[in-house]
Every structure is written in C-alpha cells, then in structure tokens.
Amino acid sequence: MQNILPTVRYLHALEFLPQSHFLVDRSKCCTMLVRHIVIYIVLPSFVLAQVCFRTDLKKVKDKTINVKVKYCCKGYKRLTGNIFRCVPQCRQNCGSGICSKPNTCSCNRGYENLNHLPFNRCVPQCKGGCTNGRCISPGRCICANGYKIDAATGHCLPICSSGCANGLCKSPENCVCNKDYTLNVNTKICQPDCKPGFQLNETSNACHPICSKGCDNGICRAPETCECKMDYQKGPDNSCLPICKNDCLNGKCTAPGLCECLAGHVKISDSMCLPDCKNGCMNGFCSAPDVCTCNSGYTNESGNKCQPVCENGCANGFCNAPGQCTCDKGYSKVTENSCAPVCKDGCENGLCSAPEECTCHQGYSSVSANSCAPVCNDGCENGYCSAPGECTCDEGYSKVSENRCAPVCKNGCENGFCSAPDECVCYEGYNKVSENSCAPVCKDGCENGFCSAPGECTCKEGYSTVSKNSCAPVCNDGCENGFCSAPGECTCHQGYSSVSANSCAPVCNDGCENGYCSAPGECTCDEGYSKVSENRCAPVCKNGCENGFCSAPDECVCYEGYNKVSEKSCAPVCNDGCENGFCSAPGECTCDEGYSKVSENRCEPVCIEGCENGYCSAPGECTCDEGYSKISENRCEPVCNEGCKNGFCSAPGECTCHQGYSSVSANSCTPVCNDGCENGFCSAPGECTCHQGYSSVSANSCTPVCNDGCENGYCSAPGECTCDEGYSKVSENRCAPACKNGCENGFCSAPDECVCYEGYNKVSEKSCAPVCNDGCENGFCSAPGECTCDEGYSKVSENRCEPVCIEGCENGYCSAPGECTCDEGYNKVSENRCEPVCNEVCENGLCSAPGECTCKEGYSTVSKNSCAPVCNDGCENGLCSAPGECTCHQGYSSVSANSCAPVCRDGCKNGYCSAPGECTCDEGYRKVSENRCAPVCKSGCENGFCSAPGECTCHQGYSSVSVNSCAPVCQDGCEHGYCSAPGECTCDEGYNKVSENRCEPVCNEVCENGLCSAPGECTCKEGYSTVSKNSCAPVCNDGCENGFCSAPGECTCQQGYSSVSVNSCAPVCQDGCEHGYCSAPGECTCDEGYSTVSKNSCAPVCNDGCENGYCSVPGECTCDEGYSKVSENRCEPVCNEVCENGLCSAPGECTCKEGYSTVSKNSCAPVCNDGCENGFCSAPGECTCHQGYSSVSVNSCAPVCQDGCEHGYCSAPGECTCDEGYNKVSENSCAPVCEDGCPNGFCESPNCCSCNEGYIKFENVCTRQWDDTERSSTGGPTQTGIMDICEQRCWNGTCVDGQCSCEENYRLTEDPRNATKFLCLPECEEECVHGYCAYPGVCVCYDGQTPQEGVECPSFRGTENAGRTAGMNIFIKNWLFLALVAVAVLLVVIIYVIMYALRQRDYRVDEKEQRYGVYFSAKQADIIRA
Predict the structure, then answer these.
(1) pTM for the full model?
(2) Which residues contact 1110 (CB under 8 A, 6 or more apart)?
(3) Distance in angstroms (rounded) separating the CA atoms of residues 122 and 115
(4) What is the pLDDT of residues 301-313, one digit of tens each?
C-alpha cells in the first residue's frame, strides 16, 4: 500500500488540475481508455484500503434503518470532488517531501526527516550532518561564522587564526593547549613550559638549552653542555677549536683541515710543513731554513750538494754511494772495488773477452753469438759430435764406423728390413701384419678365400673360383627367382617368396581378386574382367550398362526404380506421371523450362526473382495484390495516398513511423525525446536542441551558459554570473574572496580567511611574520629563512653567527669579537698566534703539536721523539742509510736504487748467481761445471742434437717431424711412398715405382669403364658408377622412370611404356582414361575426387552426399530442376511466389507455419482459436481491435468513448449509456438524480444530497448550521435530542451535560453525512486558500504542497469546483459507494485484464516525475512514458 500512495496522490492531483494545464490530443483513443480505466476502476481499489465503513441509524419516512456509511480511516482525510477520495494526513507540513501515510513523511532525493523521525518534516541532507552549520540545500552546507567546512567529514570545524599548534581549537578563536603547554594571550599560540636550564625561543616556539659562556663553533645540546661541530674539538673554556686531522707540523691549524706553515717553511702535505733550502740539499737534509747538512759517507763540495766517498777506488766503474762502486755499462762487480765484462747469454765453450763478446776454446767453433760447439771434420751420420773429432750415436742406433751409425730393430723384421730404430719396412708384395712381421698381398683381394702368396688366391670350402681374386658359393640344384647366398643356401629376390629349397614365386600382398599374381605386387585379371584397383578385378560389360551395374561379364542389372529398355540401358520410372515435365529419376519429376514443381507429379509457372506482395500469373510475369503497386518486375509496394512524413508506408493506407518518431496523425510523425527537453526542444529522436544561451548538460537537459566561466560563483542566467556568499565580483566572470580587515604578508584564500605567504607565520588574524625554522643564534630573523648577525659577529651557517677576530687566531679560537685564546698545549707568541710546546728534543723531526714530534720528510717514527730514514721500496740485501738511499751488504753489488744482487766473479753461463760466488742453472739446463750449464732434452733428439732446453736441431739431410725427432728428406717428394733415407724413396704396399720419386697403384684385373685409382681399387669414368669391384655402369642423373639407362644420360623405355621426356617413360592405355590417368600399361587410376565406373572411366565423388541434386565435379553439387543451392551439399525447393506465413516444402509447394492455416495456394492466415470479438486475428492467438475498440482480454475488444463516460459506460464507439440513478447531461457525462430535489444543497449521488456552506444535512435535508447560543434560542433540536446524540457519539469532543463541547481552537459542526453525529473541526485564523485547516492554525494544500506564507496554496481543480458550488465544505462530499459495491465483481475481472495487458508497463509515477518531468493530455491523468 505504501508504494501505491504516491501514485494515487499524483493521479488525484492530475484529475483536479484545470484544463488549461493540459495539451489536447483527441486522436489517442488508447491513452484515453487507460485514463478512464485507471481513474474509475483501478483507483477505487487503491482508495478502498484507506476507506473505513460504519453502520449509522437513519430515519426514512418515519422509519429508523441501519445505513452503511463510508468515511476516511484514522489518519486520512477526504478531498473535495465528486469522487470519494482519502489521503494520508501528517501533523506538520512535510516540506520537501510528501505525506505517504499517516504522520509519515517520505522525503525527496537529497532530503531526510528532521532528526531521522518519520513524522518530522523533510530537510536538506548534507554529508556529515553539517555540524556547526546550516544545510541550505542537498549537499550544500553553509558553516556558521567562525567555522569552515571540512571536505572529508562534512563537518564545520572552528577556526583559530593562530592555527592552534600544540593544542586543539575547541571553538572559534578558542585554543585549548596540550599538556605542558601554556597559551600566550597576545599571540594566541601554545608555548611549551621550559624546564630549568632551558629558555623559550619564540620564533621556533620551542625550548632551547642554555650555555652561559656561549658555544662557539658548536651547538648547545644540553644546559652548559656544548657539542662541537664536525671538524672541531673541545678547547679551554668550553670553546670549540678547528681540527687538522694529521696535525700541522711546523704550522698552525687555522680552520678545519687548513694548515698554515711557519716562515721559512714549505707545505709538503695538508698537515706537514718542513724547513725550506731554496737551492736544494742533494745527499743531505735541510735541517733549518737554507741550512744543508750532508748524510753520513758524503762530503759537501758546494753549498747545496754532497758527494759520496769510496776509499779504495772503483775499477771499470764509479762511486755512487759511500764505499759503494757502480760498474760501467756492460760490466759487473767481481770485488767491492772491481768490475769485469759481462756476456748476458753466457759464452758456452768459450770466454767473455769484452761486454757481449765471446771467444771460442780450441777445437770448437762459434754456432751463435754466445755459444761454441765441438767440431767433427768427417761428419757424424745418425749421431752427434760430442767432443772435437768424437762421434756419439743417437738413441736406437749403433756405430758401424767412426762417423756413421745404423738403426737397430730389437725384435727382428720378418719379410722386411729395419729402416729406423725398431721400425720394420716390408719387402715388395708384402704388407705389415705386426711391428716386426710382414704377410703376402693379393692386390685385388681374395673374396671368400685367402692369399697364399703375393697375388695368389686359394678358395674356402664350398666355394669355387669365379675370377683370379674372387670365390662364389655353390648351390648344386640351382636357385629359381633367387640367388645362392651361401653354399647350398638359396635367397629369394625382392618381391618373391620361397616355395621350395631352390625355387621362389612372385608375391601380391593384398591378394588378386578375380585374377592371379604375375609379378611381385602385380595382378593380372581373368578373362572378361578388368582392373579396378591394384589387387581387384571387376566384370566388364563391353556395351556399357546405363543406370545399372555389371554383375558378371557382359551381364547388366538395373538400379532400383529403373526398368530395362535395352541390353545395355535402363530408364527411370515415375508411377503417377509427370505433368508439364519429364521423369528424370525414379519417382522424380523434372519440370519444363519456366515451371517449378508444386507436387510430386505437377509443375506450375515460375517467376525466378519472386513476386513480393503479388503472385506469379505466368512464367516470369508478376501481378500485384490489391492496394499495392508495381515498382519492379518482381516487387510490389503498399500505397499510402496521403504520403508518410517521417515514416514509411507499411501496408496499404497505413503509415509506420521511423524509429524515434511517434504518430501525430494518420500520415505524419514527429521526433520523440522520451526524457523531456528542459530549456530546449526536441529536434530529432532522443536529441535535444538547447535554447539560445543554454548548453546541454545531459541528453534531456540544458543549463544557462557563461562563456568565460564563473569562478567562485554560479551561472544564474545566460552570460550572467552570481557570486557565492563571502565573495565579491572582480570581473564579469570572476569572484574573489574578501577579507574585511586585510592580510599583511599573506593573501585572502577564502572569505575572511588570511593565509600567510610561504616562509611566514600568522601572528594575528590579519598579519604574518617571517620564520627562520632553525633559529638565529647571535642574530635575528629579517626575512623567511634569512638571519642577520649581531654587530661583531659573522655568519657561519644559515642560522648561526660567530664572533670575529679580524687578524685571525692561529692555534687558538676567537672567544669574543677581536679576542684570541690559545688551544691547550700552545703558547701565545702574538695577539693572534699560538705555537705548540714539546718538552723533549725531536731527533730528525720537529714539534708539530703539544708534546708531539713529526718526522722530517723521508723519516719515520721509531720512538716518541726519534725518527729513522725511510726507503719506500725497501733495501734488498742492504740497509737504508738515508731517506730513499740503500747501502749493499758485503759480496753484493747494487742493481737498482733499492736492490743489491750477489756477485759471481767467473760468470754463470745458462744460469744465475744465487749467492756470492754460487751459480744456479736456469730451468731446463744442468750444471756441467762450476760456472757453466748445458741444455737438456728429456725425450732425446733423434737424428739431431739438443740446442736448447727441450729443443732439437736436426742433422744435415733431416727435418723436424716432432719436438724430439727428425726424419730424412727427399726434396722432390715421394708420391705413394715414403722417404727411407735422405734423397731415397720406397713405394707403399700395392704400388710400383715408375720414377725416382713416384709410385703407381696396381690392379690385377681390368677396370671396365674405369681406371685403377688405388691398389686393387677401380674408379669409374665420368658418367659411370660402380656396380661391382672392377665394373662400372652408365648413369642417368635424373633417373630413368619405367626404363633403363643404356648410356650416360640416355634412357630406353621398358615394354608397354613410351618416352615422355629425356629421363621418363609413361605407361600406355590404348582406350584412354576419362577423369583419371594411366598408372600402368593398360591400367587406369582415377583422379583425386573421382571413383572408377569402368576400366577406362571415372565419375566425380561428393563425400557428404548431394541432397536434391547430383555430383557434377568432385565435392560440388548441382541442384535438380526446381531446387536451389543453400549449402555445399544441399538444395532446397523453389516456390516462385512468396509463401506468405509459410515455407516452401517442395518446388512450387507451400506449407503453413505453426499457428497459421492455408487460405490460398501460397498464402496462410493466422489462427485465433478462441475467436476475436470486435477485432481480427493479426497473429496466431493475437487479436487486433477494430477502429473505435480497445483490447480488454486476449480475444476480446470493447468500444471506446474518447471523452470518457462520467457516471456511465461506453456501449458503442463514442456512445455513452448512463449508470442506474443517473441522467445524461452531455454526450459523455451523466449527473445523479435526487427525486425530491436538494434545497440548500446539490445532488451528490442518486437520492443523496450535499449541503451548501452554512448548512448541515439531516435525513437528506439541508438545514442551517448553528452555534450553542443559536441552538438554545432557535427552534433547533431539543436538549433531549442532543443528549441522545451525545450519548451515541461526540466525535473529537467531550460530552458535558448531554452536550458535545470542543477544545480551544475547535468548533462544533454536525457531520454532514450523519445528522446523529457532531464533529469538532480545527479553526485557522486566516482562510486556507486552495487548502483546508488540518490542525489549529495549520493549513494543508489539497495537492500536498507546502502553502506559501502558511495559508496560500496553488490553484487546484478541487477548489474551483468548490467555488462553483458556493464553497461547499470539503467534508460534505460523498462517494458513490453503493455503485462500486454493485460492480465489485466486474471490477476485479477488469482490473486483472488491464494489469495483464499493461504488465510490461511501469506506473511508478512518483519516480518518473522526479526523473523525467511529466506531459499532460486534456482531461486525462495519463503519463507519456519514457
């Protein structure tokens, strides 16, 4: 019921609106019908739920009878009008909502009930509830003064101009500080409560520690606790002094890492200064500025140069250090003061006479710049000269004379000779079978035998000689269709199988139906049969067998449905004949040209391209149906004589609108915008065009446009900008926030809200001050983040200033402006300079810091106050006598600035001096004397001598073949042989010598069509290939299909084949091969997609069949006559005329669809089984009403009266018949009849009067209304009568002394519907215009709206009716309840039918009104739905 109430209310409102509010469209009979049904039939059903009934006593002709009276239930009130209507009442105005049920307000979208109580009025809804503000419209919260909106929560938060850091803003400008913080009454800032030893810094609003003596170069981290900055350290008086990481020797640390040298000193590193000798100090050290002191062992010959001293001289060298000789180039030390010449690579078998110059000993000769070898004048074959005139044999050789050695084979050499140590070479005609043995050779082999002597073969048992070097197995009984593979064993040729021990027969693997196997895999057919596949033969009918099959040779059998017409032919049979056609297949008729099949044995004329909206009257000739005209040879269109604007002619004289248009007349359509078109007009379907100065915001709505925008405001009309509250206009399209009291060092960000510029903090509502976040030590903040130092101080960082000492403060710190204090361990030497103090002398160093010695350059610390010289690269075999200077130990001599080497006086050939006078051989050498080493070749040196470690040098006539072996050399080569001695060639086995350096292969048998390429091996000539060991056959490179190669590249065809190219022969089929190819002589194979039908003929195959057609080519169907193709393998019948509401089941034959029945040859009509009252069947089971009727059920239509039929019913189209008790007053209206008339009132329903204002009804008679005084002074009802009535009921009043008394602001009134009942009605001081007084002083409008100024409601039809009837009271209207009861059963049936017909429609009017708006039509309360 709750969902229905908004709809009922809205329909009531529509019924009461004046006609000027509607648009007239009398052509829409369907819409009018719905209106009357809803209002007069459906509406009472809704209202009945709000209507209550009671039984009252009523006097009729001196008789008291019980009368059933209907009235509005509690919480509802009756509206004025002829129809009895009850609407819910709410105690107060719902505002932006509707009273949906008693004391329940249903709010519009964006509104909610006040305090969320359903009986309260509807107020705007804002996010978060708009705390501390006022929600003026949905989603728009206006905060109270001193508050601002929080976008996240929707609450209005208080504003504290100071920001309220370290506290909470409880209310505007009321800041409550956190614990341990106190509010500054001037700045309104929460300041921390500082502990002892700390003080408040108002700029940063933080507690800073106090250091009473200051904290130069540091930060005061805690009370009286200084933390030095990086690179500073604690000094006296809690001050911070700069640090030089490695001290500052002979200088002063003036800043972190910055060392300044003393006078006469120079900086050698970031932390060290040394005395400066301007002219240098070679071999000494600068002990003081410009003072040079020589090192020990040196003497000063000039002011700045010290020379070394060697007391015993330096033969072949010079004194380079005290007592140390350095040899001249090319010499090496042999004693402390003597040098000898050096030959770096030694001087084998000689002596070094001068640097790099060798002289050989007697009996030796020079072989290289540093080597001499012994000499043997007569040479040393297969050996080497080990001493002058003495020969030593190489390994594996033995001496055969003073200067010659021969190879030795320890295990002998059977049938050969020893050519090298343990290397055997076979005699001619023999081959090696082991390291020391040779066997005879048969050059052409010895197949199935063995070689008994060079070139002589002997056969094995069971074999016999077939050639000089070949034996074959013997089968005594022969081997038919095979070959003898072993003695007495037969093997069949390929394609044959064994049938006995010595016989083979051909094999056909797949059998040979109706034939025999004549060769491997080849079938030969029996007489009267022909091949249909490789292994099958079929019977042959020589004269063919049309429409039949050959069952045996020359025997024809017809297919089913065919009859024999000759020995070789069968014809199809059609039992029922074939009108206008011929029998093309058994029982199948084919139509003559221009006709199509309409039954199995009958054909009709055909219009190939169809005959839309017409019929085929002759082949290819179309005639149009009535109401259609021809537009082409095969097409007719419906005719609409008056045209069809924005639509098309869908049937003769019938227009159908284009999509998006609706009909406005029989031949005209207009565009439709379903959702309306706010501030615009519908220019095309669903397309809104905005009025000038408006733009589209949605598909159906336009808003005013301000082209240049409307910053901080809204566009109230085209081109007109209105500023938001708190903003003022600065241009036509821009509003800026206003701050009434200004905003120093900031800008106005919102109305009366000042925001500081970056780097400033708020100090008052309208003023900001600069901020230095890190403070400003010894200075003040002059601009954001910018510090200005106090006088006598300078900036050391962005937020810190230090005291300045203009002349500096060496080894001290500036403790106050112009005041220097020395660091600990330093003494002041001037106003601005301090020096370190060292209590003990610094040996080879200087005092660089208090009590700290720093060594001079080239020295390193050995104790706290002593330094020793440093040689950075070490001093191998010596000692460091001065910085970077080495002195060698005895028996060693200097080889570099920091290294000494041992001395061997007699040299060390092929070795090195490892200790004084001790020689060690180099790797790969062995000692042969105290000062000489010789090379070693571990694997020997065959036919050569060892010239270097692991390196052999070959004797004359030999060349190297490996690291330790040399082989004899034959300069002209040795083809097919090997060099057995220098210049001597020996042939390989199977070869004969034809010249000094060339051997040729030997073949014992002739090479047919080839030449001997290797011993016993034939190589074929060009164009030939090997067929046996010594035979070659011609080659045809591209093959020789179905033939044999008779010469290189030349083919000869086999029998039954003919040449088709140079290398191909094809089989011959003399009778041809239709749709196939000749695969063998006289044998046909079908092409792909074809199958065999005779020996030389093939037919196409369609794998998926060919429904209603035949296979014309492989996989392609051709339709039978009267059919057309619908898929690759399917044909459908053709009906030349369109099958209206049916389908073509056979050529020219129509079958009706389900729900349709045949009305002509090619036309079907829909069937409505239950009939179609006042209409016609437009689709199966679907009725369409005749003009002037509308549907009331699936199969029934009722007449329509477009202007309604008030208090009556429509008996025929446009004809109204009055209900009982009513008389016709116009074409579409009936009025109730009161037989006795209605003085002082009007007839509200049959025999029921309603009284005019100031009158009340008693026994259907209107009498004048009176008050208490009038009641006692006039001849009104007696006191006794009133007491009787009071005892029955005193509605809304109190019965006192038999009288009904009303409360204050209520007045006593007789119930116009029941004279025995009194009512207490509320009074309003001012008249409720177009409304009624619901409660004392509270007006409610008839349409549910809120009255303006509390009393004035918009014009409403109900009040106009009241004016016309002399302002009759709203409670004196009755509804014809008795008539409703009489037709209650009929109403239920009609409501069900209407609900069923409209089941897909939506009458949720309240939702659609809010979403789309509403359109009205004259005198109806229907809604044009979107």
Answers:
(1) 0.24
(2) 1117, 1118, 1120
(3) 10
(4) 666 677 788 877 7
